[in-house]
Write a sequence for this structure.
């Protein structure tokens, strides 16, 4: 089983619909992230959470919201989807131990298309 | 903000040959980490190699090695004995030390290994 699981894997929706992308992890990590990947732009950070009560905006948070329901779960919501939110979305986790490099571990991604 | 530049959008290499992917970054930080991630057609982001900026020795992982030039802010990836399974998008990433693991990604290089 994957350590970082994203659901759904693919989703097609219509403009104006509310969409939730879910992420769960079994790695026991405290930190979780949501990224968006667009062709030619690499990955850009949307939101990140250091623990259940600590949520922070990333580079491109407008139009998105998140919920950290538990240490292992971090959801991304699009309240009213628009076509330019069509992208590949990644969830990632990391461990906050400071004595070593905190590598980020990624899920398999959710491909979202907004028509 | 940190910036990461990958100036080669696409590259190709013959199977069993060696290829080098370029990455430059801009930062005023002295302590940081650099990474190369691989994204095959499966979409999964896979860590290839990492380098701590305070280490002068270049990191090596089997057929993958880096040429880290701190003064020039350059971090290239060399793949030796290229294999068909190396065909993927490769992303260079930068992370400041002790800042909550916020990654900054380059725009990626698409590598094709030709049989």
């Amino acid at each position: 089983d994957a350590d970082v699981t994203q659901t759904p894997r693919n989703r097609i929706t219509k403009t104006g619909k509310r969409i939730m992308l879910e992420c769960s992890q079994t790695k026991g990590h405290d930190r979780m992230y949501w990224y968006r990947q667009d062709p030619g732009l690499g990955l850009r950070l949307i939101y990140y959470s250091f623990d259940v009560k600590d949520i922070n905006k990333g580079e491109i948070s407008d139009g998105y919201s998140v919920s950290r329901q538990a240490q292992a779960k971090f959801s991304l919501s699009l309240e009213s989807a628009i076509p330019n939110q069509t992208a590949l979305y990644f969830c990632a986790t990391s461990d906050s131990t400071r004595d070593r490099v905190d590598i980020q571990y990624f899920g398999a991604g959710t491909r979202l298309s907004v028509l | 903000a940190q910036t990461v530049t990958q100036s080669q959008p696409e590259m190709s290499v013959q199977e069993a040959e060696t290829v080098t992917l370029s990455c430059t970054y801009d930062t005023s930080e002295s302590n940081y980490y650099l990474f190369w991630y691989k994204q095959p057609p499966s979409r999964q982001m896979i860590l290839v190699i990492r380098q701590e900026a305070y280490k002068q020795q270049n990191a090596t992982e089997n057929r993958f090695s880096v040429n880290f030039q701190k003064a020039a802010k350059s971090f290239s990836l060399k793949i030796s004995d290229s294999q068909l399974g190396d065909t993927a998008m490769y992303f260079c990433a930068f992370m400041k030390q002790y800042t909550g693991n916020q990654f900054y990604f380059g725009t990626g290089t698409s590598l094709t290994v030709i049989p």
Remarks:
- The mean pLDDT of chain A is 91.
